[in-house]
Each structure stands twice: as structure tokens, then as C-alpha cells.
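Predict the assembly for these three chains.
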Amino acid sequence: MATTALPQRGYLHDDTPHLGEWIRSWLFTVDHKRIAILYLLAINFFFLLGGLAATFVRIELITPQGDLMSSDVYNRMFTLHGVIMIFFFLIPAIPAVLGNFLLPLMLGARDLAFPRLNLLSWYLYMFGGIFALSAAVLGGVDTGWTFYTPFSSTYSNSNVILTITGAFIMGFSSIATGVNFIATTHKMRAPGLTWFRLPLFVWAMYATSLVIVLATPVVGIALLLVAIERLWGVGIFDPALGGDPLLFQHLFWFYSHPAVYIMILPAFGVISELISTFSRKRIFGYEFIAFSSMAIAILGFLVWGHHMFVSSQSVYSSLVFSFITMLIAIPSAIKVFNWTATLYKGSISYRTPMLYALGFIGLFVIGGLTGIFLGVVAIDIHVTDTYFVVAHFHYVMVGGTIMAYLGGIHFWWPKMTGRMYNEIWGGISALIIFVGFNMTFFPQFVLGYLGMPRRYHVYPEEFQILHVLSSAGATVLAVGFIIPIIYLMLSLKTGRIAGDNPWDATGLEWKTTSPPPTHNFEAIPVVTTEAYAYPPEAAARDAAEWRPGSPL
Amino acid sequence: MRNFPLFPDQASTFAGQVDALYWALVGLSLLFGGVLPFVILFLMVRYHRSNKAVDRLNQVHSNLALELTWSGIPLLLVMGVFFWGAFLYVHIRTPPKQTLEVYVIGKQWMWHAQHPNGKRENNELHVPINRPVRLIMTSQDVIHSFYIPAFRVKQDVLPGRYTSLWFEATQPGEYHLFCAEYCGTEHSLMVGRVVALSMADYERWLVTPGEVILPDGSSGAAAAPPALVPAAGDPMALVGEQLFTNLGCAGCHRMDGAGIGPSLQGLYGSQERMSDGAVVTADENYLRTSILNPGAQITAGYQNVMPSYANQLSEDQINQLIAYIKSLSDGGTGAMSGGASSGSGATTSGASGAATGGAGEAPAFDAALAAQGKQVFTNLGCVGCHRSDGAGIGPALEGLYNSEQRLADGSVVTADEAYLIESIRNAPAKIAEGYQPVMPVYGNQLSDDQVRQLVEYIKSLGD
Amino acid sequence: MAKTSTTAGHGAHGDGAHAEHAAHAHISRGTYYKVFAALMVLMALTVGAWWIEGIIALPRLLGVAIAMAIAIAKTTLIILYFMHVKVSERATQLYAGAAFVGFAIMVIITMADYFARGWPPPPGPLP
């Protein structure tokens, strides 16, 4: 597969001799691939910012006293971490970077259905990000990313409205992306590409987009109402003005629970691609995985009350929400079992994307199982609002989504840039991340069951050892996240030229050059085979051809 | 290396049950989450591309039976876990009939608790063991959450309404109390301790006058608003009664039912018909709404003329008024005019001890002495245990005099004056059936006069 | 969902999605005018309902039900005709309907929470 040079007319290449033209060609691009790169840069900036906030939080938590920062600063720090990471990193990450780049390629299309809307969605993201950043610079916001009323609508003395505006605008960015993906998937598939021949990544993006367009408007309105109450004293959520605090929680979580599925469904899609490619065989149970994505998307709208079990929600509602929460565990379990079954009789290689995929499965299983703990109300009463919940959602969001995001970035890096990254450093950082992550968050399960509440920076002394363990792990994790940035950037200059299909994978994106030309394909491909159409002897042949010294 | 805990104490009846479910789930998780990674590792190694010896032909890409199996079995397991958890949850949320009630107010950034006999505490909660305790909680500002890890209970505390949580402590000791819902700057400092005491110790604590601290942190008589509340340590129902009078409520809400507003006799807990036809239960939230926003729910047959008391009363005072109104629903155990909602023969609600006309069976007693006896009864804290609704640590004294009392040893005695005097001076001698021998001995602490007054007062409570 | 869509003729820049307009029918100008007239009538009904409520004492539930019914009628007309959902593809109609299903879920379960506050009835009647 080795080729000697990058293709002449890749999308990254341009005929713009002047700097001004070059900037304009990027800032006014309607090419989905360039927009994906713009998102990649922006998202990584926000990730580092959110990570910095987390670093301060974990350093403060090394000691039981509040000695590094005042209560106010700490409160703003964890709020910043939450708002940035959720709204400006996790929700857009895989859809806006990998989805934008890959969806048209995987469908055999030349671009998304609405290219200018795509550019608008990036600008809305940046615009919203500017609001959030200015809120942070002007002193931060201390309500927690959940903005519970009446604290956020009446009592908080921080930049609530600025932050809310940022999240509100970002919501529209998300909706625009979702609309684009739905239209593209319905309307722009290549000839012969029926629904059940689609790669599972496309199914995942479709299910995600469904959730985005139906759920995001609700949080927009909920936050808008908080702003209205804050500005003009209209009694909606504050009982002193005649409102009901629980109403905000219902409206907020109606979005924020589907939001976590917005974060994890694309990750599931990436993992399906990685497992299949690095086992060199067709995925096991294709229909089941596809339908389970849709099931999760739909059921995800019916479980939001499991965030409110102790909030004085009625016993009846809590039981209903708990029951449906139990049900939603099943489609996720189906996926995990199908991925495991895919490994059987495959020819497995330990390349970096596969390491991330396997790490994902391990960490997601733990995160998902602890979700069942939380879904059982009797236990949730004890552990909600403690570090148990913090550990659970970091397992699924970091151990899940971020691992899948990194795996996807590494897997499609050659397609996006035309170059390979350094495999040794890739493997090393995957391992560092896995170890560091477990060190950071497993002790938090123990802390949570002991009773350590969330959002505390002063805590009883007997919890200190577990916190020190957790903070030590966080240091390792931070190192693990920094290393890929370095070698990925270096690979742009010194990486091996990848060629069209360095992984020998199936999928239409690998049938064009790396990086692809602006118009994606010289000729629109016609699809005649099912997805993951590896020949039946592909795995056997791959093993037969392996020699000592070949990549592991 | 200091000792550090890895598992919380089990200090309530719930703790063992919750932990059992928890460990069951941990076991199931180890089963899936432990076995699955091993399967994956095994497959990863066995089918690594360098291993040429394994058979990779005849691949299978779908198997319906397998899919149904590994969907069905987890489904059954999660359903099993759900039902176990659901029953436990309903148990946790259903307090028993007889509970010791404590009123809790959460505010930024402290907890304030008041026991019905008036004793108050800040950032602490003293409770007896082996006795169900119910907390009735509200917030003065934002949402907080009352969390006792050792008891495995947590309940958000909301402004504008009451939420409740119950538990039965099993081990004496001190346990953490945390606020578990982010509430602002000093959220981390809104912590305290729960002190579980044996019943005798708890009683002793209850009747010991401590420093009186009001919900805003200030102490004792100097706190506002002093004009309405002469002694802040007094039992809540008593203070509530004084508020009821001083604020003029008694002017409209006459207990004989002839006032502009409905009689509050027997109101608490009853089903009330509203003017729009709805039937509501008159619980704490209903009483609260009626005081702060009376126009929202008007009782059928009455006009919408009650003024709102929003912004005129602190949470504390609202709690006291509610405690007083609750005390007007005696539940019928020997209440003077039994079931009083008919309006005839108004039950005395603490004004004077004179028997009113109509209750012809009332024993003769000295009204003046009874009034003094009532003061003693209150000041010594007897009212803290001997609640008239029968839910106290000690038996209700309404209708006690001259009734037949079954004792713990099975014998039956008549509760005459001698019995009353002996019960006061040397309680352990005769314990009523169904009660614990925890009443303190008042021996020589009381003068004969005081004992006389107490006896007259108890007689005034009817037979 | 296994049907293939009509082959999209892709232009050089992916603006080809606009070529799909041939698929759905048109709403005539006469229909637009009729719908507008209907909306004006409904607006008059709204004002009339408000005026009548000021005169006779209606039970509150009935007043709200009438106002909601009129509003729903207006919304339906606008969505079906002015937003072209009536002449759109089945998929588009499905998505439009899905939004209301989502809204219904949110409202029904939230209201169920409020109404269910008294259950299970504890012996002390605090909900």
C-alpha cells in the first residue's frame, strides 16, 4: 500500500498564494472536510480548556481543606469544566468532526445536503463558544452545568445569562448538524446503497441526529426561561415568585438525558467500524446493532426522571422511570456482545485504533453496569449527588466517548491528512490513558458509596486517601491526553504517506485518495455489496501472511 | 498509615437492606463485567493475526438464537433487580404510622432542626435509636438535600414546599450529615452530624434546656421577632397557638365553626372540599398554601377574604402554626368533644382549663390549679413525650384519669390520683403496656404543690 | 426503510439536493388564500372566546379547552399548508409528527409526576 507522495489535488491543497485568500478559503469554505478540520481545531481547544479546569479541581481535592482556592473560585471551576466539556466538547466531538468528514464519503456523496448550513453550524459553535469564554473570563459562573433553579434564576451572583446564551447558541449549531445529517442520509446515498448496506457509523449518526433535532430545542427553551426569570423576575421556577423549581429539572433533563445518548451513540458507531476492520471480518449481528441504535435513541426520551429520583418527584413517576432505565441497558448490552462475537475467528491486530476500541468496551461495560446501580431507585437514593455518579458518567463519557473519539481520529487520520501517525507512541498513549483513567475514577466509586457528595471541595479527612489516589491518576491521564496531540501534529510533517487504504478496510471512504479531493470522488461509486464485505477468507489470509516483524 | 474507611457504617434499618441489594448488583456486575473482559482478552490473544494455528474459516455473521439469548437473560436479570429495588424504594418512601417528627429547615448554608417539644439545634440532629423518625423539611432559599450516608437516606429540600424523609436508627453514634444538592458558595460547609442516642439519653437531651438558637443563627430571646414569640424554646404547638392568637387568626377561624373562616378543629389530615369542587387532603402543604396564598384554595362555602401572610412569617413561624393546627386534630383518643368537626362543644385549645358546658362527663377539677399544672407540664417538657395525638414516646394523657390502664406486666389498674402521683414521682413502678420504661424519675424535684397542679391538669384533660 | 431514494444527480459542489423539488406537488394560490381566511376566522374566535369568558362564568377547564382547541386548529393549518407538510414526503411528515410525539411525552410524564404526588399514600398525609 505504500505510495510515495500525497495526491495532487487533495482538499487540503489550495491555489491561494496570498495569506488573505488562504484564510478566506478556509473561513468561507463549504467543503464538509474543511469544516470538519475547523471543528477539530476548535474542539481540541475547548477540550484543553475544560481539562485545565479539571486539573485545578483535582489539585484542590488533594487536601481535605479548601486551601488552593476559595469556595467561589472552586464552584466556578467545576462549572466551567462541566459546561465546556459537555456543550463544547462531548456533544459536538464525534458528530461534528468525524461525522462531518465521513458521512458524505461513506454515502458516496460529494458533500452534505446543505453545505452552507454546515458552515453556519461551525460559526454558531464558535459564537456560542465566545459567549461561554467571555463568561469565564469575566469571572465565571457558579451554578454547576445543570443550572438548577432557583439558585441559577434568583440567587447566583455570577455570569449566568452569558453562559446560558453560549449554550443556547451552541444548541442551534447542534440542530443544524443534525438536520444536515438526516437529509443527507435520506437523500444522497450512492446508487445501490440501501439502508441495510450502510456502515454502522452512518446508522449511529442517523440515530444521533434524530435525538439532536427532537431534544435540543427543549433545553434551549428551558435555559431561555431561566434567563427570563433572572432578567425580569417572571415567576417560572422560583417559588418565591410563584414558580416551581422542579419544573426546570423536568425540562432540563428532558434534553440532558438524550444528550448523553448524543454523546455515546456516535461512539458506538466508531467502535463498530474499528472492531470490524481490525478483525478483518464482517461485523456480527449487523441488523441488531443498527436497530439497537434506534432503540436507544427512542427509549432515551423516556428515562429523564432517573436524574430526579430524590428531587421530590412522585414515587409513581420514579418507578416508571426506573423501569424504563432498566430496559435501556439491554440494547447497549446487545452491542457489546455483538462486538465480542465479531472477534471470534477474526484476525486481530493490536493497532492503536483497536487498542482504543478494546479499551472502550472494557470501560463502557463498567460505566454501563454502574448505570444500572443508579437506575435502581433504592440504591440511587444513597449514591445520587455523590462521587458514585461522577465516576459513572466519567466512565461512559471519558472511558466511552473520548476513547472512541481518539480511536476514530487515529483510524481516519490517514484519510484526513494522508499520513500515518507513529504507531509506537499511539499504543503507548492508549495504554497510559487506560491506566490513568482507571486510577482516577475507580476510587471515586468507593468514595461515592461512602457518602462523599459532589461539588464539595472541603471534605471529611477520612476520604483523603481516595482523593489523592484519584488526583494521581488524573496526572497520568493528562499525560496520556497530551502525547497524541504532539505526535499527531508531528505526523503532518514526518508521517509515512498512507495511500488510499492503509488499513485495507471496506467502506466507500477508502475508495478515494488520502486525503480526498474536494469533490470526494472522481466518479460516484455504485454499491453492489453489503457493508463490511470482507471476503470470507480475509481473516485467514491475513493471518497466513503475517510474518514476525509485521505490525502486531 | 491512618485507618481509612472503604465502606460506610450501617446505622439504620435501611442500611442493611440497601447494602444487600448493592452487593447483589456488584456480584452481577462482576459476573458480566468480570467474565466479559476475560472472554475478550482470550479472543484477542487466541485470534491475533500472528496465531496461524486457529481455524478462521466458516465464519458466522449472525445467529438469532444467540442474539435472543443474550438479550433475554440480561432482561430477566434487570427486571429482577428492578422489582427488588422497587419494593425497597416504596418501603423507604412510606413512613410508618407512628413516627417521631422533627421539623428541619435548610438554608444557605446551614441546617436547623426543631423537635416538637421546642428544642432546637443547628447543623446537628439528635435522634433516638429503634424508633422511626420522620423529618419534615423545607428550605428558605434554594434547593438543598438532606443526606445521612450511614442511614442511606437522602431527600432534596425544596423552597416553597415540604418534603419528608424517614428512618429508624439502629446504632448509637455520630454520623455525617451532608447537604447533597449544590446550593452556592459554602455548599461544602453545609455539613453537620447526626447523633443517635438511646431512648433514655435522647429524652434527657430533649428536656435539657440548651442554648436556644433560631434558624437564622441568632440565639434566644434577643432574636426577632420577639414580640410574637415570648420564649423561643417553648413547644412548637404552644408557640403556634400564641401566634394564632396574636396574628388575629382566632378572630375569623372560630373553633365553634361560626366564624368567617372555617374551624380548624380536626382539619389536619381530613378531606376538604374546595369551592371549585375538588377534594383535597389537608396536609402540611395544604396548610402552608392556605397561610401564604389563601386565594389558591378556598374551602367550599366560604368567601375568598383571607389575607395572605406571605412575607410576614418566617419558615420557623409557619412550622409552629402548622404544629399547632395539627395539635387540633387529636385523632379522637379521648378528645373532649370527640371528633369535634360538628362544632358543638369546642375543645379547649389551650386557653383556659375550665370544662365547657356540654361535656357533662368531665370530671370535676380545679381550673386554677389545672392552669398552673399546664404551665408546669409545659415547662418541664412533659409535653415533649406525652403528645395528645398518641404519637409521642409516652402515652397521651387525654382521657387518662379514672380510666382502666393495662400495664406492661399484664395487670390492670385504675388511673386514679394515686396512680398519677406515682407515675410522676416514680415512673418505673408502673409502665403502661406498649411503652418503654424511659420516663425520668421526678422524685423530689417537684414540690407537692406542683404535683397537685399536674394532677389537676391531667384531670382536666377528660376521661 | 429499505427502499432506495431516487438517484441524486450530484452537481459539482453538492448542491444537488435541491433537485428533489420535482418530487412533491404544489399548493395552489387559492388554497393559500382559503387557509389564511380560516386563520382569520379562528383569530376572531379566540378574541370572541376571551370576550365571552369575561361575561359568563365558565368553568376554568372548559375555557382552557376551548382556547387550546382553537390554537391547535391554527397550528395544524399553518404546519400542513404554509409549511408544506401536507404535500411533503412521508419521511418529512413522520419527522413533523415525531416532534409532537416528543412534546407529548414530555408533557404527559411531567404532568403525571405532578398529579401522582399523593401516591403511595403515606399514613401521615404528606405527599
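Chain B touches chain A through 88 residues (CB under 8 Å). The mean pLDDT of chain B is 79.
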